[in-house]
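Re: the request from the purification team.
They wanted to know what the chain is likely to look like in 3D before they choose a buffer screen. I agreed to run a prediction and write the result into the notebook, where they can find it.
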Amino acid sequence: MKTVIFIKNHTDPSSYYRLLQYYYGNKDIKVCSYSSDRLYNWYYNIGRDKIQSNRNSFAGMIRKLVLAGYGIIHNTWFIFHYSHSDIKNIIISRTIFPRFFPFYASFLVKRFFKGRNVIWDFDDNIIADREITKKELEILIKYAKRVVVSNEYLKSTLPYTIHSKVNILCTTDHIFAKENIDTYIRSRMETYSKKIYLIWLGTRDNVKYLGAIMSSLDLAAKELREHYDKELILRCVSNTRVACECKYLRVENHVWSRHGAIELLKHSHVGLMPLQNNKFTLGKAAFKAVQYISAGMPAIVSDVGYCKEVITNDMNGYRVSTMNEWKDAVVALATDEAMYGRYSIAARECWEDKFESHVNQTFWEEILKS
């Protein structure tokens, strides 16, 4: 074991797509997971038909405490157990102790970091979201030899004095890198004349953004049905169910899994990434939009933050700001087959030009050699 990676969970998309996909099969790496898969599924109600509790409710707070308690005990033991091992690199995905930092951790973590190559990586505004405590933030800023973030905005949230050791690396997905995307585009065209499948990938934390545009999607579904004899279906792929009272839009709920999401991406027409404009969303890596275009799929995104770097209007999708623009963008992509084909090809070309995963692969491989 030469390298230790601290992650939230093996199932967690952020942990996987930022780091783990580049390190699978490497026997010199030990992964420390803040939560077990079973606990992660219990916390997020994954696979349940009904949400058992709001995380701001009393029951939700109990869940948070259980998750935090497990993480603190597990990671404390891990650091103590491996503190004298022959470890060269320590890579931290987001935090070591999310939202809680036990009183004894400063001494333990500093001793663990001493003489080792510490790399800190994050792709959300974990400072504004208070996912990281002030004390752990101070320690990581001081001891990390390299800090890796997904965009310039996240870099700006860090002290100017450490900007020289900050690297910017997008979040991307290697799964479609060697795939024949033309095959998927042709498959989508086979159903284009009768059915348009929208897809939204997201966690329960982001459902509120999708909920805000549901009425616009329903209006788009109405127009497509009445004027073009087409059905609009929204595939929600998440760790929660999306409730909908739409009259014309058909909503399908799919429990998120890495393999399941990939299969649905292959056979959907348009990807959606709605957001609000705030400090947290400005720090987002727009990974879902990147994932959509990697599969040769046009995307409609909110004109917010890093989404502007991924989607270009009238090229590989639409950046929108108003409810009417959401409806119009869906209708445009669903009714002009020639344009849809051009946007699909341009989406993949954009991914190959700006977000190709081999760049990330090389970066993380070089980290282990430094």
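For the purification team: The two ends are 16 Å apart (CA to CA).
Please add any questions underneath this entry.
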